[in-house]
Amino acid sequence: MTAETSQTLDRGLRVLKLLADTDHGLTVTELSNKLGVNRTVVYRLLATLEQHALVRRDLGGRARVGLGVLRLGRQVHPLVREAALPALRSLAEDIGATAHLTLVDGTEALAVAVVEPTWTDYHVAYRAGFRHPLDRGAAGRAILAARQQPLDDPGYTLTHGELEAGASGAAAPLIGVTGVEGSVGVVMLADAVPERVGPRVVDAAREVAEALR
User: Fold this and answer.
1) Does 18 share its domain with 85?
2) pTM to 2 decimal places
3) pLDDT, tens digit (0-9, with 9 covering 90-100), for 62-106
4) How many domains does the chain have?
5) Which of 38, 62, 71, 108 has an alpha carbon within 20 to 30 A of 171's alpha carbon?
6) pLDDT band at 148 (very low <50, low <70, confident <90, very high)
7) Which residue numbers delimit the IclR-ED domain (predicted)?
8) 187 lies in which domain range?
9) In the sheet that 98-105 helps form, which strands lie side by side, from edge to edge?
10) Are 101 and 32 contained in the same domain?
């Protein structure tokens, strides 16, 4: 720790990160061992975090992430959207199709940013806030593919007619962005996605990932 940082805040944030990485919660002893501090320090950290609803403890005494993090999480989408818009605008104008950034929200895919092309006679109406199952549509399928094959370049996913009759989609996952699981894609009225669209979507996903790092 340097003189300009807060040791207590650092420890509290480390507690939240440790709890976020487990589905079963952690005991005071487990947190103490992982942080390398005594149990009294952990008790104080947990008590403070509980006051802000960022941590909760079950009847067995295991600490888990609290519902208060949801209020913080709601503010993440506007920041992510702002960072992604330049790449999405470029993608939409280049391809002439509706471009979107989609993030995982529980078991669903949630469109958090959408940009429509300005020069086409018609395009697919796709709105921010639109939800669909992860296993339907290019956006969700690209995310699932990245989970199965977490490589630096997992490629892109193509679909047709899964979310809207007559519409085709292409999407590529965001790679290397800590705490964000999502994809960038386009949706168009076509029987098939043109060959150049897939690689262009991958490039846009890389641009968005870099903007979010």
Assistant:
1) no
2) 0.70
3) 999 887 886 776 667 788 889 999 999 999 999 999 999 999 887
4) 2
5) 71
6) confident
7) 68-213
8) 73-212
9) 131-133, 108-115, 98-105, 182-189, 167-173, 157-160
10) no
